[in-house]
Specification:
elongated; 7 strands; four-stranded mixed β-sheet; about 20% strand; 2 domains
Length: about 170
Amino acid sequence: MEQDVMINKVAESGIITLNLEDYYPQGEVMLFDLKDYLFMGLILKEKDFREALKNLDLTPYLDKNIAITCTADAVIPMWANMLVASYLQPVAKNVVFGNEDFLQKTLFLKNLYKINTAEFADKRVVIKGCGELPVSESAYVEITNLLRPVVKSIMYGEPCSTVPIFKKKL
């Protein structure tokens, strides 16, 4: 009697699953709030601000991902953000202007840009859907932008149940 052999069609299909969670930003996130350096919570005095930054203990920012922002309703001159970045950049892992959410999205995209898209040339790729970590829409759009020029096809979901996104026309 012949035995029925189970064939894993997904494994044999040559489909590559790309899990965006593998590119999720690592490291502690901190906010550098300019409101703490404003006179009366409203005005940035250049001389006082420069002095405060000169005396700033940079230890808490060591190897952290920093978002520079101002949570007070104040007009902050552009140079002030640049000055803060110039102090933080040598010790921080990353420094951006914006809130913590913007920082996370920026770091995520930075990680995606490190992907060697040549490894996916003419491949069928499934971008994994559901997961444990909150992957933003911007990450899904950017991975599509990165892979579309080189892949045979892009699908979304799981290899056993996908939504077609793109298929190269022959």
